[in-house]
Amino acid sequence: MAFYDSIRLEKGMYGNSTKSFTEILEELDPSENYKGTELEGLDAYQRQLKRYDIKVGTDRSDQVQKFFQTSDSAALFPEYVSRAVRQGIERADVLSDIIAAKTVIDGMDYRSVVSEPSDDEKQLKPVSEGASLPQTAIRTGENLVKLQKRGRLLVASYEAVKFQKLDLFTVTLRQIGAHIAREQLKDAVDVLLNGDGNNNAAVTVAANTNGSIAYSDLVDLWANVSPYELNTMLAPTDAMTKLLSMTEMKDAQAGLDFHGSGRMITPLGAQLLHIPSISGNKIIGLDKNCALEMVQSGNIIIDYDKLIDRQLERASISCIAGFAKIFPDSVKVLTY
Predict the structure, then answer these.
(1) Domain that residue 267 falls in
(2) Is residue 115 part of a domain?
(3) pLDDT (tens digit, 9 = 90+) per residue, 101-147?
(4) How many CB atoms lie within 10 A of CB 101?
(5) Structure letter (DSSP) for residue 108
(6) From the CA atom positions of the chain, what is the Rg in Å?
(7) Is the whole-model pTM more than 0.90?
């Protein structure tokens, strides 16, 4: 009998604030012990699914009730929910294209670091012998990072879903994850525009002609972001249509890239992201490598007690996260 067949699964494995259910399983049953076997490539959680013959994500997936054949297998259900929601977050992910760093904390209080060098301090001027090197001041923000809880409640009873195939139920859970991802993106955009509470709202650059966008306006935006690199632009639907209608966007190479991959690249080489939640006539230009930090309190939070006990009604799925600016000058807003 393989060792993974003898592990006792219980609710308490979800109560650890610093380790996930899978991480605890991996400590008990390391994946490295299965190199060269038929179980190589499976993580500790997937081996438990195999142990109880629970098929997920295939055209022959089992029904939801398969998780509840024993008390031990029922303990696998919250992790299944968490993974499905996480898949939805990853599929709808735009945040990874605009954040420079992600910090996971154990708690609700966090102060990010802030560095606001002057124009003179951004230049590494020659230093004569014996003279002091110029300084870059790094300090903690005056205010805590504002963390937002985003999530959904499951409202279906166990009786309503127990005969449903797991692949279909997964689709519903992924949609919850996609919703969380979209709401977190709104929070990130709000911080880029209005700051994180430390008097660091983005500086605006006005277009030359009210109501329209010209190539020269993009050049002005690029110049104002300098010496940072303008490598990412966020635009609402109206701005997207104007940008895509520009003569410079009809360049053969740009059009070929758009038609071939769906990626939208500006004439300045920056990645162009469609963000419908941006209100007003504005485009956000930023250096994604140093503009924004994402702060997340723990991982996806689920009511594991209720899920294990088949009390799906009112079981919550949520994630707590916030955003902080790192180098405020690396973000500028073009208004038109």
Answers:
(1) 195-293+327-335
(2) no
(3) 999 998 888 988 777 666 665 555 676 677 777 667 777 878 899 99
(4) 13
(5) S
(6) 24
(7) no
